[in-house]
Amino acid sequence: MPPYYPVGKLPAEDLDRILRKYASGKDSRLLVGPGIGQDAAVISFGSQVLVTKTDPITFATEEIGWYAVHINANDVAAMGAVPKWFLTTILLPEAKTSPELVERIFFGLSDACTELDITLCGGHTEITHNLDRPLLVGQMLGETTSDAYVSGSGARLGDQILLTKGIAIEATALIAMEKSEEVRERFSDSFLEICRGYLKEPGISVVKEARIAMATGGIHAMHDPTEGGVASGLREIAVASEVGMLIEDNQLPLLPESQALCSFYGIDPLGTIASGALLIVVDPEYTRSVVDRLTAAGIRTAIIGSIQPPDFGIRIRREGKLYDLPIFDRDEIGKIFEA
């Protein structure tokens, strides 16, 4: 019996090996290609660049259309670009697809595109075999100037690491949607509604904070942590940039509802799906300006660590002691489907 991967992302070392082997051909106009820690591809069009990303929605069953637009827009924004055009492939389950379901999905797509001033410009929709829920694969296209994009590989020694909003925001909303009756029974109706509302408050979109950070200056890298959580996102930046990191555990923002749900389900918030947080690596001379401008815009921002030499490793300081930052072989959100 061959070994099988668990649900979630491929292990980083395996994915890196596969990409180097099969995706190493490089057109001279491809400025940023596939790689660990890279949120999107960047293609040169002279003084402008096209930033393009594709991402599926597999966990969320409610508001899947709205969700898909925001998740893909986040990755384009994390490269310093403005999301502009969206395409999607929608696969719907046989004998479970009603006109109301289709209408709801497209309403969500339209609503999110309107929020972000994005044009829904194409895609494909079909009802297909062997699905138990809708699956949606999005592709976002964005643009910026050739001197204004960043990537996950730009971190430099001495830079500081910022995190917006908090960890486990997306996980909080997903747990509330997928385990609504259990959460209501354990906590309360009002608690459940707050958690479900995490999709929009504090929100899973990071487009606004990415634009503010880029407009302030001094940004060397940004990354939108998704599956595998903030810990995996940090590690991906470190691997892409070939640097070490020191993370301060007591500076990692964890909202009370997230803390309560993670504790109840035995989930480590550092390793669970984390859209809504944006990792920003910034020149220390610009740190205060970036934090102040984000805070003035109502976006909570914490200084959570710093870039270190490669031989330092990727470490976290807890109660004065240094530990290796945890590695999560699969996203912790999987535990809710076992509970």
Helix and strand arrangement:
Blueprint (H helix, E strand, L loop, with lengths): L11 H11 L7 E3 L8 E5 L2 E10 L6 H14 L4 E12 L5 H18 L2 E10 L6 E11 L14 E5 L4 H10 L1 H7 L2 H8 L10 H10 L2 E5 L5 H13 L2 E5 L7 H10 L13 E4 L4 H10 L4 E8 L5 E5 L2 E4 L15
Parallel strand pairs: 4-5, 9-12
Antiparallel strand pairs: 1-2, 2-3, 3-6, 4-6, 7-10, 7-11, 8-10, 9-11, 12-13
**Overall outline:** globular
Number of strands: 13
Alpha-carbon distance between the two ends: 27 Å
Figure out the total of helices: 10
Helix content: 25-40%
Mean pLDDT: 94
Low-confidence stretches: none
Query: What is the radius of gyration computed over CA atoms, rounded to a whole number of angstroms?
Result: 19 Å
In spatial order, strands of the major sheet run 8-10-7-11-9-12-13
State the order of secondary-structure elements, H for helix, E for strand: HEEEHEHEEEHHHHEHEHEHEEE
The major pleated sheet works out as: 7 strands, mixed
What structural class results from the helix and strand content? alpha+beta
Q: Please report which band the strand proportion falls in: under 5%, 5-15%, 15-25%, 25-35%, 35-45% or over 45%.
A: 25-35%
